[in-house]
Every structure is written in C-alpha cells, then in structure tokens.
Write a structure and sequence with these properties.
The chain has helices spanning 15-28, 39-45, 78-90, 102-113, 138-158, 174-182, 197-209, 226-237, 257-275, 295-299, 307-316, and strands at 2-7, 32-36, 48-50, 95-100, 117-122, 162-167, 187-189, 215-220, 241-245, 281-286, 289-294. By secondary structure, it is of the alpha/beta class. The strands form two sheets. The chain has a seven-stranded mixed beta sheet, sandwiched between helices. Strands 7-8-6-9 form a four-stranded parallel beta sheet, sandwiched between helices. Bound molecules: 6-O-phosphono-beta-D-fructofuranose (F6P). Its main location: cytoplasm.
Length: 318
C-alpha cells in the first residue's frame, strides 16, 4: 500500500510531529509513504518524494512544516481538483492524508468526491473547526500569546496604561479568548460577541477607580485593527492606550506538549484507519477521545462558541 501526506494552508506548530507520526506508523505497518511538498500546489506539480524513518528524525520539536505549505487558487477549481486526483493516480498514491485547516479539509472533500481516498487532520492555530475540540497548533499559539501578554503587562503596569493586544483569528476568537482567560485580560473583543466599546471603556474605568494601575484588552483580528481601538479607547477613557499586534510570531515556535501529543495521536490514528480501509474521514478529539468522523458530516458541524469561558473570563478580570 502507498500513502501520501501533505500540509496545506497556514502552518501550525505540531504539523511536524504529525508528519513524523504518520511516517513512522506507516513504515512500522509496512506501508510506503510519500511526502507531497508545498500542499496542493506541490500535488498539482507532482512535487512528491518518498519518505523514510530518517526523513522525519529530529523534527518532533520543530515548528513550521518540513513539507512546507501553500494556498493554491488553482486547486480550488474543478480542473485543479481533477488534475490533483490524476497526479495521485500517476504516483500510485492510494490514500492521501491532508493536514490543515478549513480550506484544506474542503479540498480533501472535493478530492474524495472525485473518488480519492482521503483522511483529514485538523492543523491550524485558529481552532476554528467545529468537529474537534482542539486543532494542532492552537495550544502553542495560545502559549505564545500568553507569554507576550505577561511581558506587555510588565511595561503596561509601569506606565499605568492600557494595551490592546491583537492576536490572530478572523472568524474565530479562540486564541484571544483562551489567552485572555489565562492572561487575565481586563476585556475581550471577539468576533463571536457584539462589541460595545462604551461598556468596555466603562469597565476599564471602574477597574481604575478600584485601584487597577493598568489593563490589557485582547483583540481578535477579525474585529478590526488594534490601532483604531487604541485611538477610540484612549479618547473614551483618557488613559494612554498603546497596542501590539503579535502577528506571525503566533504561527511559529516549538510545539507545546499538548500539540505534540495531539499531533502524534492524530497522525498515528489516521494511518491505522487507512490500514483498516476506513477513509473519507477527519480525525477529531472530542471530550478527550480520538475518533474519525465522515468529512462531509464533520465540515457541517458548527463551531460552538465557548460562552461559559467568556463569562468566566469576564468575572475573573473585574
Ligand atoms: O493560520 C491561520 C491564520 O493564521 C489566520 O488567523 C490569519 O488570518 C491567516 O492565517 C493569515 O495567513 P497568511 O497571511 O499566511 O495567509
């Protein structure tokens, strides 16, 4: 049997741990494994090489993806999907494992609809997929954001300021929510919650009246740019307000314990399910268990906003 693996879309810490788990589990089970470079772009171009036990040595702890990644516009077309399916056939790749986010999983579904055998693994720092509690890379991104918040807090305290910290997340505010909770942010601005800036500023001022010397506002990028918020918050509170966009630092770095384990479990189980001829699924972690869910069904599962965490964060940061 021959399988292929690719990483696609935005990279995420833990993708390498996942590739390693796939390659080693495959070889252990006498399955040939090919690495497809640069995501769907590399698949379209036949940029494909066999992988060995040694090609994945020493990558467990590395951020990024050794297979590299891309966002291919051509792949998103019918012609692109057809061409990709042909390349898989040409290389004798019977099963394909796709590690990536929402767009990548939709690509896997399109390939499956053309008859390809695929298994998806959720890898994105955004944690924006409804079918799994956690995606590979999210925990590391939150840990990076948390480290930044702690540092920003030091200087924000010294100067008695407000600091707006912008993190990634276009439609999903999970990075801001989880880092905001663990970093004790005084206010959260998330795409899932209607923003009432007057109420936020009132809250910041009430905290100041009670003796708070500084405040952190977590902002998910989907709600706008931190610069605009700084101007408005400073105007309304009359407190000097600075801002920081954490940017791509959130996508890099050595994966956390949780991401390495999540990636290893998902990679291992993806290969085992292929060995059992159970494909057309995505790997998920739900309530602590690992399972495969049919791709189409999985992609229809809505992402549930953790209102309970939001409410708790609001109480704890008064
Ligand atoms: O990986 C997800 C994500 O980081 C989003 O939060 C962000 O908006 C986007 O990717 C940016 O990615 P790029 O600039 O690499 O296309």
């Amino acid at each position: 049997m021959r399988i292929g693996v690719l990483t696609s879309g935005g990279d995420a810490p833990g993708m390498n741990a996942c590739i390693r788990a796939i390659v080693r589990t495959a070889i252990y089970n006498k399955i040939e494994v090919y690495g497809i470079n640069r995501g769907y772009s590399g698949l379209l171009e036949g940029d494909i090489t066999p992988l060995s036990v040694y090609s994945v040595a020493d990558i467990l702890q590395r951020g990024g993806t050794v297979l590299r990644t891309s966002r291919s516009e051509f792949f998103a077309t019918d012609a692109g999907v057809r061409q990709s399916a042909n390349v898989l056939e040409e290389y004798g790749i019977e099963h394909l494992i796709v590690i990536g986010g929402d767009g990548s999983m939709n690509g896997a579904l399109a390939l499956q609809k053309l008859g390809a055998s695929v298994v998806g693994i959720p890898g994105t720092i955004d944690n924006d997929l409804g079918f799994t509690d956690y995606t590979i890379g999210f925990d590391t991104a939150v840990t990076t954001a948390l480290d930044a918040i702690s540092k920003i807090r030091d200087t924000t305290y010294s100067h008695n300021r407000i600091n707006v910290v912008q993190v990634m997340g276009r439609k999903c505010g999970d990075i801001a929510l989880f880092a905001g909770l663990s970093g004790g942010a005084e206010a959260l601005i998330l795409p899932e919650v209607e923003t009432d800036l007057d109420a936020i500023c009132l809250r910041l001022l009430q905290g100041k009246d009670r003796g708070k010397l500084h405040s952190i506002v977590m902002l998910a990028e989907g709600c706008g740019n931190y610069r605009d918020y700084c101007v408005k918050i400073e105007e309304k509170t009359q407190v000097t307000t600075k801002g920081t966009n954490l940017g791509y630092i959130q996508r890099g770095g050595s994966p956390s314990n949780m991401d390495r384990n999540l990636a290893s479990f998902m990679g291992y189980n993806a290969v085992l399910s292929i060995a059992k001829k159970e494909t057309g699924t995505v790997m998920a972690q739900r309530c602590g268990s690992y399972l495969g869910i049919p791709i189409e069904e999985a992609l229809q599962m809505p992402k549930i906003f953790r209102q309970d965490i939001y409410d708790m964060a609001s109480v704890l940061s008064i």
